């Protein structure tokens, strides 16, 4: 059982979850609770820095790409203030959808202590939290994670409900609420991305693709996530030919999501 916020604050284990996407914040906070950690949330780096200044948090779990202030700058600001005030070092762990070696190096160079990738593997997350918090190891709450069958061609669901069940259990209402929250968010982000492509706003395209990438990774929507990674890379390189191709791939995956769930379009 997770401690209360007050208990976690007293023992120095309260986690600050930083992510601009509401679905990611919800899932991460619930995952942490299942692992025996209490958490509060922040919507971006500026919000997180203001909350961190209170001295209440024992650990920060942050996304990297966010508006206003990203996770890299948040970490640099935290390290600067620690150095200036002599405060105890707060472990900062990146939680990012960009599972690339250069992303890990960039996180560590900014002053982060470790990196976990979305979709979050619960045993890996627990090991990382316990290692940096120096608390006794404890088993993952809930039933053992079932082994999943490899995807057969054409059989893969648009959202990996097996991944959700492995994380949250088999309660249908819980799974449906998570899927519904994801569908609502991805519908809004997809519409915004499509408009941004039309007005050739590369920065908006990159930001929206990253938002969709993070949320899709968290719920195991691998097709959407993979397409969003291509869109992100093409927008970063300002390659409109590659971007158009990546957007077409995203359109196909979104259509599959819409066809399967009916609520996405």
UniProtKB/TrEMBL annotation:
Residues 14-133 form the Response regulatory domain. It comes from the Bacteria. CDD domains: REC_hyHK_CKI1_RcsC-like. It is found in: Cell membrane. PROSITE patterns: HPT, RESPONSE_REGULATORY. It is a multi-pass membrane protein. The keyword rRNA processing does not apply. The modification Phosphohistidine is found at residue 210. PANTHER family: HYBRID SIGNAL TRANSDUCTION HISTIDINE KINASE J. This is Response regulator. The lineage of its organism: Bacteria, Pseudomonadati, Pseudomonadota, Betaproteobacteria, Burkholderiales.
